[in-house]
Recover the amino acids of this structure.
């Protein structure tokens, strides 16, 4: 479930102007610090760094979770 939600976070960070608080609420994370912690664990950078262009240096979205 976490992998799926993180792919949704990545999509919103790349293609929307949603605030982090809106993403947190929509996708069911406890709060922004929880999202930051989980995202950084799996992606190696913060959501804000990902949005600011760090995503360009990464090889695409997280793989699908089966």
């Amino acid at each position: 479930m976490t992998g799926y939600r993180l792919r949704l976070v990545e999509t919103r960070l790349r293609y929307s102007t949603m605030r982090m608080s809106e993403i947190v609420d929509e996708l069911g994370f406890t709060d922004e610090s929880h999202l930051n912690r989980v995202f950084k664990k799996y992606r190696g950078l913060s959501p804000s760094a990902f949005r600011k262009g760090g995503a360009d240096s990464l090889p695409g979205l997280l793989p699908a979770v089966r």
Notes: The CA atoms of residues 5 and 27 lie 7 Å apart.
